[in-house]
Amino acid sequence: MNGLVRTALRASTLKGLTQSTVVVGGTARRDFARTMWNMCSRQNELAPLTSYKIQNPSDFCSCGCSRKAHTKAEKELGLFLAEEIVAEKKAQKMKTIPTELDGFKISLDGAEVTLTKKHGDETITINFNVNHTVDSDSEPDIDTPEDKAEFGEMKSKPSFEVDIERGNQTLGFTCSFNNEPQASGADDGYNDIFGIDEITLYEGEHNDKIYAVAGDVIDGYLYDLLMNYLEEKGVSNEFAEKLIELSTTYEHTAYISLLEGLSKFTSGK
Protein backbone atom coordinates (compact mmCIF):
# COMPACT_ATOMS: atom_id res chain seq x y z
CA MET A 1 0.00 0.00 0.00
CA ASN A 2 1.16 3.44 -0.80
CA GLY A 3 1.93 4.90 2.63
CA LEU A 4 2.24 8.34 1.07
CA VAL A 5 -1.47 8.58 0.47
CA ARG A 6 -2.11 7.99 4.16
CA THR A 7 0.43 10.61 5.22
CA ALA A 8 -0.83 13.57 3.19
CA LEU A 9 -0.17 16.68 5.24
CA ARG A 10 -3.09 17.52 7.53
CA ALA A 11 -2.23 21.19 7.35
CA SER A 12 -2.86 21.19 3.61
CA THR A 13 -6.40 19.98 4.18
CA LEU A 14 -7.30 22.24 7.10
CA LYS A 15 -6.17 25.51 5.50
CA GLY A 16 -7.24 26.46 2.00
CA LEU A 17 -8.65 22.98 1.42
CA THR A 18 -10.79 23.93 -1.57
CA GLN A 19 -7.98 25.84 -3.27
CA SER A 20 -4.66 24.14 -2.55
CA THR A 21 -2.86 21.38 -4.38
CA VAL A 22 -1.28 18.53 -2.38
CA VAL A 23 1.82 16.78 -3.74
CA VAL A 24 1.79 13.04 -3.04
CA GLY A 25 4.41 10.58 -4.25
CA GLY A 26 5.93 13.22 -6.54
CA THR A 27 2.59 13.70 -8.35
CA ALA A 28 0.43 16.76 -7.84
CA ARG A 29 -3.06 15.89 -6.64
CA ARG A 30 -5.76 17.96 -8.36
CA ASP A 31 -7.38 20.87 -6.55
CA PHE A 32 -10.60 20.31 -4.64
CA ALA A 33 -12.65 21.91 -7.40
CA ARG A 34 -16.07 20.87 -6.19
CA THR A 35 -17.58 21.97 -2.89
CA MET A 36 -19.88 19.86 -0.73
CA TRP A 37 -22.79 21.99 -1.98
CA ASN A 38 -21.97 21.15 -5.60
CA MET A 39 -21.70 17.43 -4.86
CA CYS A 40 -24.97 17.25 -2.98
CA SER A 41 -26.90 19.48 -5.37
CA ARG A 42 -25.65 17.49 -8.39
CA GLN A 43 -26.98 14.29 -6.83
CA ASN A 44 -30.35 15.96 -6.32
CA GLU A 45 -30.44 16.97 -10.01
CA LEU A 46 -29.95 13.38 -11.09
CA ALA A 47 -32.59 11.93 -8.78
CA PRO A 48 -36.10 11.45 -10.22
CA LEU A 49 -38.60 14.04 -9.07
CA THR A 50 -40.98 11.36 -7.87
CA SER A 51 -38.48 10.30 -5.21
CA TYR A 52 -38.90 13.52 -3.26
CA LYS A 53 -41.19 14.02 -0.32
CA ILE A 54 -42.38 17.47 0.66
CA GLN A 55 -40.51 18.40 3.82
CA ASN A 56 -39.93 21.43 5.92
CA PRO A 57 -37.00 23.47 4.52
CA SER A 58 -35.52 23.49 8.02
CA ASP A 59 -34.91 19.73 7.66
CA PHE A 60 -32.14 20.40 5.12
CA CYS A 61 -28.69 21.89 5.56
CA SER A 62 -27.32 24.55 3.24
CA CYS A 63 -25.87 21.94 0.86
CA GLY A 64 -29.28 20.36 0.28
CA CYS A 65 -28.76 17.04 2.07
CA SER A 66 -31.00 15.72 4.84
CA ARG A 67 -28.64 16.78 7.60
CA LYS A 68 -29.74 19.95 9.38
CA ALA A 69 -26.15 21.17 9.51
CA HIS A 70 -22.63 20.16 8.58
CA THR A 71 -19.95 21.25 10.99
CA LYS A 72 -16.72 22.76 9.74
CA ALA A 73 -14.86 19.57 10.65
CA GLU A 74 -17.36 17.42 8.72
CA LYS A 75 -17.05 19.55 5.60
CA GLU A 76 -13.24 19.50 5.70
CA LEU A 77 -13.22 15.76 6.38
CA GLY A 78 -15.63 15.10 3.52
CA LEU A 79 -13.54 17.09 1.07
CA PHE A 80 -10.35 15.32 2.07
CA LEU A 81 -11.93 11.84 1.96
CA ALA A 82 -13.22 12.43 -1.57
CA GLU A 83 -9.64 13.05 -2.75
CA GLU A 84 -8.12 10.35 -0.57
CA ILE A 85 -10.42 7.61 -1.85
CA VAL A 86 -9.61 8.47 -5.47
CA ALA A 87 -5.86 8.46 -4.74
CA GLU A 88 -5.96 5.16 -2.81
CA LYS A 89 -7.92 3.44 -5.59
CA LYS A 90 -5.41 4.74 -8.12
CA ALA A 91 -2.58 3.25 -6.02
CA GLN A 92 -4.17 -0.23 -5.95
CA LYS A 93 -2.11 -2.86 -7.74
CA MET A 94 -4.90 -5.45 -7.72
CA LYS A 95 -8.59 -4.57 -7.90
CA THR A 96 -9.84 -8.02 -6.91
CA ILE A 97 -8.73 -10.58 -4.32
CA PRO A 98 -7.77 -13.99 -5.76
CA THR A 99 -9.77 -17.03 -4.71
CA GLU A 100 -6.76 -19.37 -4.65
CA LEU A 101 -3.05 -19.19 -3.80
CA ASP A 102 -0.71 -22.06 -4.70
CA GLY A 103 -3.44 -24.65 -4.24
CA PHE A 104 -4.87 -23.04 -1.08
CA LYS A 105 -8.49 -21.90 -1.33
CA ILE A 106 -8.94 -18.39 0.09
CA SER A 107 -11.91 -17.34 2.20
CA LEU A 108 -12.43 -13.86 3.69
CA ASP A 109 -14.36 -12.82 6.78
CA GLY A 110 -13.89 -9.19 7.79
CA ALA A 111 -10.23 -8.77 8.73
CA GLU A 112 -9.75 -12.56 8.90
CA VAL A 113 -8.21 -14.52 6.02
CA THR A 114 -8.22 -18.33 5.84
CA LEU A 115 -6.38 -20.52 3.33
CA THR A 116 -7.17 -24.24 3.14
CA LYS A 117 -5.99 -27.19 1.06
CA LYS A 118 -5.93 -30.98 1.16
CA HIS A 119 -2.56 -32.74 1.18
CA GLY A 120 -3.03 -36.51 1.10
CA ASP A 121 -4.88 -37.48 4.26
CA GLU A 122 -4.13 -34.09 5.84
CA THR A 123 -5.92 -30.76 5.85
CA ILE A 124 -3.64 -27.74 6.00
CA THR A 125 -5.17 -24.47 7.20
CA ILE A 126 -3.49 -21.07 7.38
CA ASN A 127 -5.15 -18.23 9.30
CA PHE A 128 -4.17 -14.58 9.71
CA ASN A 129 -5.71 -11.20 10.52
CA VAL A 130 -4.77 -8.06 8.56
CA ASN A 131 -5.43 -5.60 11.41
CA HIS A 132 -2.34 -3.67 12.56
CA THR A 133 -0.05 -5.52 10.14
CA VAL A 134 1.33 -2.71 7.98
CA ASP A 135 5.04 -2.13 8.63
CA SER A 136 4.79 1.65 9.02
CA ASP A 137 7.31 1.68 11.89
CA SER A 138 10.06 0.35 9.63
CA GLU A 139 9.93 3.37 7.32
CA PRO A 140 13.09 5.51 7.63
CA ASP A 141 13.07 9.14 8.74
CA ILE A 142 12.49 10.95 5.42
CA ASP A 143 11.09 14.39 4.73
CA THR A 144 10.25 14.92 1.05
CA PRO A 145 7.63 13.15 -1.11
CA GLU A 146 10.37 12.23 -3.59
CA ASP A 147 12.33 10.41 -0.89
CA LYS A 148 9.22 8.58 0.25
CA ALA A 149 8.38 7.49 -3.29
CA GLU A 150 11.91 6.14 -3.67
CA PHE A 151 11.59 4.18 -0.43
CA GLY A 152 8.66 2.18 -1.79
CA GLU A 153 5.26 0.97 -0.70
CA MET A 154 4.22 -0.28 2.70
CA LYS A 155 3.64 -4.00 3.23
CA SER A 156 1.24 -5.98 5.38
CA LYS A 157 3.16 -8.72 7.22
CA PRO A 158 0.80 -10.53 9.58
CA SER A 159 1.63 -13.30 12.00
CA PHE A 160 -0.04 -16.47 10.77
CA GLU A 161 -1.13 -19.85 12.10
CA VAL A 162 -0.46 -23.08 10.23
CA ASP A 163 -2.54 -26.07 11.36
CA ILE A 164 -1.83 -29.49 9.88
CA GLU A 165 -4.73 -31.75 10.79
CA ARG A 166 -4.63 -35.52 10.42
CA GLY A 167 -7.52 -37.47 11.90
CA ASN A 168 -8.20 -36.13 15.38
CA GLN A 169 -4.71 -34.66 15.83
CA THR A 170 -3.46 -31.21 14.88
CA LEU A 171 0.13 -30.01 14.62
CA GLY A 172 0.05 -26.25 15.01
CA PHE A 173 2.66 -23.61 14.15
CA THR A 174 2.55 -19.92 14.97
CA CYS A 175 4.76 -18.03 12.52
CA SER A 176 5.79 -14.43 11.95
CA PHE A 177 7.81 -12.53 9.37
CA ASN A 178 11.40 -11.70 10.24
CA ASN A 179 12.41 -8.05 10.46
CA GLU A 180 16.03 -8.87 9.62
CA PRO A 181 17.73 -11.56 7.52
CA GLN A 182 18.64 -14.76 9.37
CA ALA A 183 16.34 -13.78 12.27
CA SER A 184 15.19 -17.33 12.92
CA GLY A 185 15.34 -19.81 15.76
CA ALA A 186 18.40 -21.54 14.39
CA ASP A 187 21.96 -20.29 14.04
CA ASP A 188 22.49 -20.88 10.35
CA GLY A 189 23.08 -19.08 7.08
CA TYR A 190 19.55 -19.39 5.71
CA ASN A 191 17.73 -16.19 4.85
CA ASP A 192 14.23 -17.26 5.89
CA ILE A 193 11.74 -14.43 5.58
CA PHE A 194 9.56 -15.97 8.30
CA GLY A 195 10.20 -17.97 11.43
CA ILE A 196 8.44 -20.33 13.83
CA ASP A 197 7.35 -18.60 17.04
CA GLU A 198 5.53 -21.52 18.66
CA ILE A 199 4.76 -25.20 18.14
CA THR A 200 1.99 -27.31 19.63
CA LEU A 201 0.40 -30.74 19.13
CA TYR A 202 -3.07 -31.62 20.38
CA GLU A 203 -6.17 -33.75 19.89
CA GLY A 204 -9.66 -32.39 19.34
CA GLU A 205 -10.24 -28.70 19.99
CA HIS A 206 -7.43 -26.40 21.10
CA ASN A 207 -7.59 -24.87 24.59
CA ASP A 208 -5.29 -22.97 26.95
CA LYS A 209 -4.31 -26.14 28.85
CA ILE A 210 -2.45 -27.55 25.87
CA TYR A 211 1.34 -27.30 26.03
CA ALA A 212 3.22 -25.18 23.49
CA VAL A 213 6.94 -24.48 23.09
CA ALA A 214 8.61 -21.35 21.71
CA GLY A 215 10.51 -21.78 18.46
CA ASP A 216 13.62 -19.96 19.71
CA VAL A 217 14.29 -22.40 22.58
CA ILE A 218 14.13 -25.70 20.73
CA ASP A 219 17.19 -27.46 19.31
CA GLY A 220 18.55 -25.65 16.25
CA TYR A 221 18.63 -28.78 14.11
CA LEU A 222 15.05 -29.64 15.10
CA TYR A 223 14.04 -26.10 14.14
CA ASP A 224 15.60 -26.54 10.67
CA LEU A 225 13.82 -29.86 10.20
CA LEU A 226 10.47 -28.28 11.12
CA MET A 227 11.07 -25.45 8.64
CA ASN A 228 11.81 -28.09 5.98
CA TYR A 229 8.61 -29.86 7.01
CA LEU A 230 6.57 -26.68 6.50
CA GLU A 231 8.20 -26.14 3.11
CA GLU A 232 7.23 -29.66 2.10
CA LYS A 233 3.64 -28.85 3.01
CA GLY A 234 3.71 -25.79 0.76
CA VAL A 235 4.65 -23.10 3.29
CA SER A 236 7.97 -22.02 1.80
CA ASN A 237 9.78 -18.69 1.54
CA GLU A 238 8.29 -18.24 -1.93
CA PHE A 239 4.80 -18.93 -0.60
CA ALA A 240 5.39 -16.51 2.29
CA GLU A 241 6.27 -13.75 -0.20
CA LYS A 242 2.95 -14.36 -1.95
CA LEU A 243 1.22 -14.32 1.43
CA ILE A 244 2.61 -10.82 2.04
CA GLU A 245 1.26 -9.66 -1.32
CA LEU A 246 -2.15 -11.17 -0.59
CA SER A 247 -2.30 -9.59 2.85
CA THR A 248 -1.12 -6.22 1.52
CA THR A 249 -3.76 -6.23 -1.22
CA TYR A 250 -6.57 -7.25 1.11
CA GLU A 251 -5.54 -4.81 3.85
CA HIS A 252 -5.48 -1.99 1.28
CA THR A 253 -8.94 -2.99 0.02
CA ALA A 254 -10.24 -2.99 3.61
CA TYR A 255 -8.70 0.44 4.20
CA ILE A 256 -10.44 1.90 1.14
CA SER A 257 -13.75 0.41 2.30
CA LEU A 258 -13.21 2.06 5.68
CA LEU A 259 -12.58 5.43 4.01
CA GLU A 260 -15.75 5.05 1.93
CA GLY A 261 -17.78 4.15 5.01
CA LEU A 262 -16.30 7.06 6.93
CA SER A 263 -17.22 9.40 4.07
CA LYS A 264 -20.84 8.21 4.07
CA PHE A 265 -21.07 8.35 7.86
CA THR A 266 -19.76 11.89 8.23
CA SER A 267 -21.85 13.18 5.29
CA GLY A 268 -25.02 11.70 6.77
CA LYS A 269 -25.80 9.63 3.67
TrEMBL record:
GO CC terms of this entry: mitochondrial matrix
SUPFAM superfamilies: Mitochondrial glycoprotein MAM33-like
Top-level lineage group: Eukaryota
Transmembrane segments: none
Gene3D superfamilies reported in the protein's UniProt record: Mitochondrial glycoprotein
Similarity comment text for this entry: Belongs to the MAM33 family.
Stated name of the protein: Complement component 1 Q subcomponent-binding protein, mitochondrial
Gene that this polypeptide is encoded by: LOC107220275
